[in-house]
Amino acid sequence: MCKKALGLLLLTLLVIPATAQDDYAFYMSEAGSASLIYRGRRAFEYPILFNGTYWWSGPTFKTGEVFYNGKIYRDVQLNIDAARQDLIVQDPVGLTGKLLAGDLVEYFVIDGTRYLNLRKIYGPEAPGGYWQVLYDGEKKFVRQVTKQMVQDMDGSKRSQIGEVYSEYKRNVFNVFIQNVAYGCVLENGEFVPVKRRRHILNIDRERRREVRHHIGVLEARSSMMPIEILGVEVLKFLENR
Length: 241
Fold this sequence. Notes:
The chain is of the alpha+beta class.
């Protein structure tokens, strides 16, 4: 090993607590082939101050499983960088997050919620990124959260950041705003964007009158459903009648 590389290694070991080094080495030796998912590139770090969050639904890593490069890895700590649409796995001792290559991820589950890589499953015509499964049947209703960093000089975009996970910082003008998209995956794998109510109400043109009547009855009992619930109710009705 060259002196420069040896010096960098020693510096790294000095920064990492000895107990963490021992835990990590023990885990890697015990994990065997499972340790492969921890050998990817380090997750991207945002080097500037900002408001909002780039995480899909908060900074906490949660237990899940991932089908990666043809193999299932269970009981791993996962989170999604929604700005880059990256799936991140936390190393066993919580030292850092490692990026899982998107073209090798087929699906994953975080805290009981299933996500799909539609392009990996259905081909290049499908939209990119990861999609949360809201209804999983012959047809699937899916949702994608993306984050975008923008300038916000007057605070007018504060309402667009989604849930707040930390105090809103004054005099910080970079902000991650949230965008949410919905879609329906048909039996043949075709993806139909759902931007308005009519897109999901008319998903089965031969039965759209039945669907509209059913939804009308449901909404008469309460109020107009948000699209997230509407899509689930429509597909549930179509597949159970």
